[in-house]
């Protein structure tokens, strides 16, 4: 019975840690975040924050790139279309970067074939899904938060996050509705269950049956 208590205690501790775990996403100074997990990023008229606090698990960020380039011998500002990215946050901090360009021609080529790098503080390459998101409206008056909501509601983009989806669902487990997806909680529970004796497993099964939720 002690093993059963220990297994359930470990499960509760792991779930509590997952709910509270946070990491930081840092951007190049040329990258400006617009929306994080459906909420508009607070910024002032002059600048956007270069760091965001991520939730544990799946995160979705809308951002845009603005860089000075050379065109016809003069320096001018290139502003990209917004990009929407979805990824699974690791336990440590991550950084989103790109290879800067020099000319307007290079900038336009990048706009057609964007190349970003998402890397953890430990040097691990983080897999992500990314695509451009064209937002209607005049510059400075675009509703990016609403655009992201519509994007997710359509459920056709590669970086879609399902409405109401919990933040602890890894990117590689996001599938259409009604798909049979696993979870880290289940893996932890199964590991603890396998360590119990036959009698303890029987006691656990009786408890589980009494507390079984009705399928909706």
From TrEMBL:
<feature type="signal peptide">
    <location>
        <begin position="1"/>
        <end position="21"/>
    </location>
</feature>
<dbReference type="Pfam" id="PF09829">
    <property type="entry name" value="DUF2057"/>
</dbReference>
<comment type="similarity">
    <text>Belongs to the UPF0319 family.</text>
</comment>
<protein>
    <recommendedName>
        <fullName>UPF0319 protein ASV53_06070</fullName>
    </recommendedName>
</protein>
<keyword id="KW-0732">Signal</keyword>
<dbReference type="InterPro" id="IPR018635">
    <property type="entry name" value="UPF0319"/>
</dbReference>
């Amino acid at each position: 019975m002690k093993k059963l208590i220990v297994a359930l205690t470990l499960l509760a501790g792991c779930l509590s840690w997952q709910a509270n775990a946070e990491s930081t996403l840092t951007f190049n100074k040329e990258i400006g975040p617009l929306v994080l997990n459906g909420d508009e990023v607070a910024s002032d008229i002059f600048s956007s924050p270069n760091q965001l606090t991520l939730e544990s698990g799946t995160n979705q960020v809308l951002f845009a790139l603005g860089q000075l380039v050379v065109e016809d011998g003069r320096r001018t500002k290139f502003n990209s279309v917004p990009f929407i990215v979805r990824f699974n946050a690791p336990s440590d901090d991550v950084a989103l970067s790109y290879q800067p360009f020099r000319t307007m021609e290079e900038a336009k080529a990048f706009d057609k074939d964007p190349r970003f790098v998402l890397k953890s503080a430990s040097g691990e390459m983080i897999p992500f899904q990314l695509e451009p998101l064209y937002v209607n409206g005049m510059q400075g008056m675009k509703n990016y938060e609403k655009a992201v909501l519509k994007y997710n509601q359509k459920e056709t983009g590669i970086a879609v996050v399902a409405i109401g989806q919990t933040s602890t669902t890894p990117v590689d487990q996001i599938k259409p509705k009604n798909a049979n997806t696993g979870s880290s909680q289940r893996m932890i529970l199964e590991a603890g269950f396998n360590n119990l004796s036959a009698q303890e497993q029987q006691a656990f099964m009786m408890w589980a049956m009494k507390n079984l939720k009705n399928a909706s």
